[in-house]
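ESCALATION

Customer reports they have been waiting on this structure for their group meeting. Please prioritize. Original submission:
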Amino acid sequence: MSSAASQIKKYIDSLPEGETFPSSALRSFATTENIRQILNRLVKRGEVKRVTRGIFVKPKHSRIAGEILPSAIDIAAALTQSTGETIVIQGAEAARILQLTTQVPLKLIFYTSGNTRILKFNNTNVKLNHVNPSRLIAAGTTPGLVISALTYLGRENVTEKTIEKIKQHISLQEFNDTIKLIAKMPSWMADVFYCYQKRENT
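Update from on-call: job pushed to the front of the queue and completed.
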């Protein structure tokens, strides 16, 4: 085994099972072409799985569920690390993650600061939609997830009870960090948080 292959294998072995990583994370070990060849061999041996172009995962299996695929959050984080884009999970999936809805989105969609395009993920098309930077607040964080989910639910469906439910599913620190972003929220969303906080403090 070459030195580069050995170093890459050692790096992957050190990752937890189910960890997603971009091929760009391996650039200190070899040339781009060499990395591609080594990863192709590891994919064929089943030691890593290709999620989409440039994104891989160290496989994780469960006796009950079988192969466990990376979450939308993991994929978004790996894409961000790989491309340098700002990427957030689309509101429908964000709402499901925060247990504001039980409906599973039919399509996996991300918002991005980059170009609109479609990627292949486990034989499924994943769409990246270019959006205005105002839709990419606190990308990669729980507060960003909250804002994305509430934007998706819309003004008519977000009440103080919605905010209370969110507070029960995230940490107090994450909730407080969300409150700090009020100035960057749409005005209607900021008003709901303001009224909630005012009621809690009386």
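Sent to customer with the following note: DSSP finds eight helices and nine strands in the chain.
Escalation resolved.
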